[in-house]
Amino acid sequence: MALFVHDSFVRPYLGDVWVVILMYCFLKSFLKLSVLKVAIFVLIFSFSIELLQYLNIVDKLGLSKSKIARTVIGTSFSWIDILTYIAGFSIVLIIEKYWLKKGI
């Protein structure tokens, strides 16, 4: 989907929030770990991807012409992305604890 959406809000901001939630749901469907452990893992993974963007890893690996690599890994570091990952993490915890009434 990210390859086809070219707007200034959904893909860059809401998309990052959504991907954290989706990664959490995907992992939680296979792992019998606590909500907090899986959510923290996803948050750390997201931060790691952002760090790779800061280090310009796509270019260093010679993948700058690959649309897939540029989309999946990304090419530009942003502090706003860090905030969107934290927002996705927070939404997961809020939904799991309060809406679904599960303990974290």
Order of helices and strands: HHHHH
Number of domains: 1
Based on Cα principal axes, name the global outline.
Answer: elongated
Structural class estimated from helices and strands: mainly alpha
Task: Assess the beta-strand content as a share of residues.
Answer: under 5%
How many strand units? Answer: 0
Gyration radius, in Å: 15 Å
| Average pLDDT metric | 88
Poorly predicted ranges = none
Distance between the termini: 31 Å
Helix content: 55-70%
Number of helices: 5
In short:
The chain is mostly helical and 104 residues long.
Could you explain how this protein is built, in words?
The model has no long low-confidence stretch (mean pLDDT 88). It contains five helices and no strands. It starts with 9 loop residues before the first helix and ends in a 5-residue tail after the last helix. With 104 residues, it is mainly α.
Label this structure with key terms:
mainly alpha, elongated, 104 residues
Topology:
Blueprint: H1 10-30, H2 35-54, H3 57-60, H4 67-72, H5 79-99
Helix pairs in contact: 1-2, 1-5, 2-5
